[in-house]
Amino acid sequence: MLEARNLAVEFASRGRRARAVDGVNLTVGAGEIVALVGESGCGKTTLARTLLGLERPTAGEVVYDGSPLGYRPRALKAYRRQVQLVLQDPMGSLNPRQTVYEAVAEGPRIHGLPDEEQVVADALSRAGLRPPERFFLRYPHELSGGQRQRVVIAGALALNPKVLIADEPVASLDASVRGEILALLLRLRADLGLSALVVTHDLGLAWNIADRVAVMYLGRIVESGPVEQVLTAPRHPYTQALLSVLPESPERIVLTGEPPDPTRIPAGCRFHPRCQVVASGRAAAAGIEQDCSGKALPVLTADPVAEVACHLIDTRVPSEPT
């Protein structure tokens, strides 16, 4: 349904070029949920904005349903009926002066959809706000955090999209509400056949909701594959470090070095300055330390098999039998 092909996005930053996205291949299939994970500043949100057409790529292309994305206003308007965004902060993404009805009706009005009231009622109902008429005249401050997030989801559903891009969809919610919103996204996939790209730093969320996971570091996917395979047997040192912070992890991995700077991408493996394999001497013992610091790694493909970009291991590994 949605694909990034060799996507790159650069920005000017203090006289230098910041490579926020630096060669990404990623696909979201029909009815599939893909989790894009990584720490803050790795390029996840920039990639999501580019897939939505909010940023134009410096190189590469976005492809929807087999056709490259066009950037003329009419083409973008038609595209955004099919691909909708769900933001992480419902209070920030809802206008406090608009009622729930006005917030959900905004998209249908822009696109000239008929039967506006019925469209709004159906969207609220599908988002779990029932009876929908009870919420029409309420304002965001009168709702709970979970209800506000459901209104945001209803605003996306009002256009009957095929793909949702959810940027940290439960990050601002209480733990008791998070499960409800994740269950809603899974139900929408089952009932409507929706595809989704879920952007998150939370590997626990990825485990609970995704079919596949892509791990991003400093503008590039460093490991991807079926969620069970990647998260139960992570091969890239960065994925291992991310998983080590989960409560059930037997060992905490503390990364060395500074947080990544997209204006100063290191040679070789971009993770090597912070890599625990290099810091512990295992890379030197394996005879790959020079490769880690000087030999570029290939860009991962969008193949559904498990892939990893690390000098210590093979790039591609076979998927586990289902």
From TrEMBL:
Keywords: ATP-binding, Nucleotide-binding, Transport
Keyword Kinase assigned: no
Protein's name in the database: Peptide/nickel transport system ATP-binding protein
Family: Belongs to the ABC transporter superfamily.
A Pfam family matched in the record: ABC_tran
Domain ABC transporter: start-end pairs: 2-243
Lineage: Bacteria, Bacillati, Actinomycetota, Actinomycetes, Propionibacteriales
Keyword Translocase found: no
Gene Ontology molecular function terms on file: ATP binding; ATP hydrolysis activity
UniProt source species: Kribbella amoyensis
TM segment ranges: none
Domain of life assignment: Bacteria
GO biological process, one term: transmembrane transport
